[in-house]
Amino acid sequence: xxxxxxxxxxxxxxxxxxxxxxxxxxxxxxxxxxxxxxxxxxxxxxxxxxxxxxxxxxxxxxxxxxxxxxxxxxxxxxxxxxxxxxxxxxxxxxxxxxxxxxxxxxxxxxxxxxxxxxxxxxxxxxxxxxxxxxxxxxxxxxxxxxxxxxxxxxxxxxxxxxxxxxxxxxxxxxxxxxxxxxxxxxxxxxxxxxxxxxxxxxxxxxxxxxxxxxxxxxxxxxxxxxxxxxxxxxxxxxxxxxxxxxxxxxx
Length: 251
Prior knowledge:
Blueprint: E1 3-5, H1 26-39, E2 44-48, E3 54-60, E4 68-69, E5 74-81, H2 90-104, E6 109-115, H3 125-130, E7 134-138, E8 143-149, E9 158-159, H4 161-164, E10 173-177, H5 183-197, E11 202-206, H6 210-214, E12 223-227, E13 230-233, H7 239-250
């Protein structure tokens, strides 16, 4: 497979694998704006030249929009290979590229979010274990931080205290999210509108800065939904799915 790295020079003309559309789409515009700012932080977005979901996105852990303590490590935002691209070894190629690049930059290893069992929008733990990753920390909601150290004596990454016990102080539904995931630009406003129309207490908190994301009460900042203080899910919701969740929670 041939891959291309997103830069400020080609960002506008290249498709973004997790939001395949034109630049007039709010999801694409949101993701590209977020990427443009993160490129200055050392973010790497490496993708297939073919249109489809086949890419890896990573950056220095100090600049990760997650409450983690991992100095001199590299953090993988997303490794996504799906559809017709699966089963060809492309995920291994992308991961190896990240490993090689991180070693060249003097990093101590890679870290990424996962869980004991596969969850939507999180890395597959079976795949991570197969590639040599292991769990180095776990939050109360079952979200785990996995690490692949480059040397045996490398200090392991860990969650910051704010993320170890995910809870909020607000009643009703509270959503923490960032613009890292392009789907949020479309669906968060729709869920907000749906909640208003049905009289559902809902408060969306858009994490707009690195400091806000790193102090969030959740290890997952792309999308973390709470109800009456308790963590519910990291799975992005459209209007129908949100109403089904509310109905289920009320029974």
